[in-house]
Sequence to fold (213 residues):
Amino acid sequence: MSPGTDDTPPADPAAALRLIEEQQAEAARQLQPDLRLYYWPWGVAWLVGFALFFLRYGPDGRIFVDLPGWLPLTVLFTLLGAAGAVSGYAGARSYGQITGDSNRRGGWYGLAWFLGYASLVATNVQLSDHLSDELTSLLWAGSSVGLTGALHLAGAAIWLDRGLLYLGTWITVTNIVGLIAGPGWHALVIAVAGGGGMLLFGTVAWARTRKRP
Fold:
């Protein structure tokens, strides 16, 4: 024991209770991931990637900015890959030492994302050859965003998380509005409302965790 260190428990029960609460709060802060690392990368990916799609492949075939045809998809996939890496690192860093039911829920939930998108890709590949370029883009974008919203809602049900409930609902409603608006407009709606919504949600969620005692 170093000089001056007092490891004796507090004699006052109230002081002991405060010490326990402080230690629990500190442990929660260490395990709680930085929610900005979860939502900001995805928000940036949607905002930038889908905005490029709107500028290059606008409504009724209109081209607002004459970008190379390969650029929007390449940028979107690159940003989505980077977002997945960043959020995966944040999750592994925060929850890597957690065991038990919470660990299994997280693992199975991650498996649901993987298998869900694998099924989506397999389905869309079969359908794409039978659709026009505009409808093919709408199929891929709409189904991907729709599955993202549904999985967020599933996460809300698993962890009874109101934040995931609100975000999943927002993404789903945004996707429906974009699909009804049609090709071109869908990309704009997802870029502004979807990507912007994720950036806002990440900021609000992070600010709330910072305010917790």
Summary: The chain has seven helices and no strands. The chain has one domain: 31-211. Helices lie at 13-31, 35-56, 71-95, 101-128, 133-159, 162-181, 185-211.
